[in-house]
Amino acid sequence: MQFQNKNILIIGASSGIGLELVHLLSSEGANVFAASRSRSERWPGSVRYIELDVTLETGILSDALPAELHGFVYCVGNINLKPFSRISENELIADFKLNVVGAALSIQQALKPLKNATAASIVLVSSVAARTGMAYHASIAASKAAIEGLAISLAAELSGSQIRVNVVAPSLTDTPLASKLLNTPEKIEASAKRHPIGRYGSPQDISTAIRFLLSTESSWITGQVIPIDGGMSNLKTTF
Questions:
Q1: CATH number of the structural domain spanning residue 54
Q2: Tell me: the pLDDT tens digits for 75-99?
Q3: Helix, strand or coil for residue 146?
Q4: pLDDT value at residue 239
Q5: Quick check: is 35 in a domain?
């Protein structure tokens, strides 16, 4: 199996994309370390749980991780949509702290075991909104764009340690986080139509892409932002 005896840390592992990834990697033999604010009853029994709130304290990671860490995934996020004129300073700071500062500090804590492993991989999660102008997305787009900048810089800095760093940028995905955007038949239909491929995303769409970036199959890919968005970011199918 591709991930047999590989140690993978997934932060934000209790639902949505992170939960799907836990199951996918566990089924392929990975030793999954799942970090989140609460334990999920839906995790396989083999999962190692790390209680973690990235907005409060990430220092506990260094003591909770194994000596070698082959993969790091940061699936933490939020969807804070509102008119720009109504976004408060506290909301801007909170979004940035959750998406960017939390990721950066978590990577710092995991850096030693990542360097100890052979050819480790870091995958961060951005959003289609970071590069595609969307109304009411100013705060989330700003913080996710910063995630992309962080990843590209780290990809250069860590390349000498054989650590790859990449980003996936999903569009709307059917997760608990997006439930308010998909809670009526009308919203479901409209969301599907906005994507050239004719549907919105599933957690499996994103988790399989992350799995690829963690695997040796992508060993020559680093410093990339990969849209997983049904064509939304660069295809125009209506005139």
A1: 3.40.50.720
A2: 998 888 999 999 999 999 999 999 9
A3: helix
A4: 59
A5: yes
d(CA 168, CA 148): 9
Distance CA 74, CA 147 (A): 10
Q: Mapping DSSP to helix (H, G, I), strand (E, B) and coil, where does residue 76 land?
A: coil
**Taking Cα atoms as reference points, which of 65, 38, 39, 42 lies closest to residue 53?**
38
Beta strand spans in 31-181 (E): 31-36, 48-51, 71-74, 121-125, 164-170
Q: What pTM value is reported for the model?
A: 0.94
Portion of the chain with pLDDT greater than 90, in percent: 74
C-alpha 76/C-alpha 10 separation (Å) is 9
Q: Is 190 helix (H, G, I), strand (E, B) or coil?
A: helix
Q: Which residues of 165-201 are buried (b: 16+ CB within 10 A; e: fewer)?
A: bbbbbbbbbbbeebeebbeeeeeeeebeeebeeeebb
Domain count, the chain: 1
Nearest to residue 194, comparing CAs of 135, 109, 112, 113?
135
pLDDT at 184 over 90: no
Q: Which domain holds residue 42?
A: 7-228
SS3 content of the chain, % helix, strand, coil (to 5): 45, 15, 40
Q: What is the CA radius of gyration of the chain?
A: 17
Q: Among candidates 213, 216, 91, 107, which has minimal Cα distance to 153?
A: 107
Please check whether residue 39 lies inside any domain of the structure.
Answer: yes
What is the side-by-side order of every strand in the sheet holding 31-36? 48-51, 31-36, 7-11, 71-74, 121-125, 164-170, 225-228
212 pLDDT band, cuts 50/70/90, is: very high
Confirm whether 238 is domain-assigned: no
